Each structure stands twice: as structure tokens, then as C-alpha cells.
Amino acid sequence: MKIPATGEKINPLLDRRKTPDDKLYQKCQEFEAVFIKKMLEVSQPKNSLFGSGMQGDFYRDFYLDEMAKEIAKNPGIGLAESMYRTMKAHEKEAEQVGREDEER
Fold it and tell me: Which of 60, 30, 66 is nearest to 42 (CA)?
């Protein structure tokens, strides 16, 4: 069995993101990044690398934003993928109900 060296084949959504649904997956990833940032804020001490005061808080916030975005990229923690699949399933169900209503 050949194991890919990168995440290209690990995440099945990589191929799907090239479709028009790219915007939905991107928004799911942004939400995952916000969630990860909140987790990092709790785990990171306030007066660590960046010092104290307003500037330290600004740099700490910027650092956590960027770190969360990088972590949320593929494969992330799986929250974006789960949200995407759930929303797509609900969208298909809604379309099907809409078609049934039109037929009546």
C-alpha cells in the first residue's frame, strides 16, 4: 500500500473544493479557524511571548489568528469537513422537498 507524503489524497474534500461549493467550504474553514483560535486563547498564557499591554495583546491576537488559520487548513481538526457534509446533505434534502412540492 502506498501512503501519500502530503495531505493531497488524505482528505477527500480536496477534489470537491474545486467545484462551485468552494465558497461554502471556505466559510466552514473560517468557522473552524475561529473555533481553534478560541481553544488556543484558553491554552496560551496571557503574558507569554508578546509581553503585556495593548501591543502585546494585539500581537498575541494576530499570532493566534494566523496560527488558527494554518491549523484549520487541510486536514484541520475535521470540524469544517463535518459541517460542509452536513450542510450539503441538508441542501440536497431541501431541493428534493422543493421538487416534491412543485409536483403537487
Answer: 60
> What is the C-alpha to C-alpha distance for residues 99 and 103, in angstroms, rounded to an integer?
6
Q: What is the pTM of this model?
A: 0.69
Which triple of cell numbers denotes residue 24? 461554502
The CA–CA distances, whole Å, from 23 to 33, 57, 70, 99 equal: 15, 31, 18, 25
* Pair 35, 79: CB distance under 8 Å: yes
What residues does each domain of the chain span?
17-44+53-103
Tell me the pLDDT tens digit for each residue of 11-59.
555 555 445 467 888 999 999 999 999 999 898 877 667 777 888 888 8
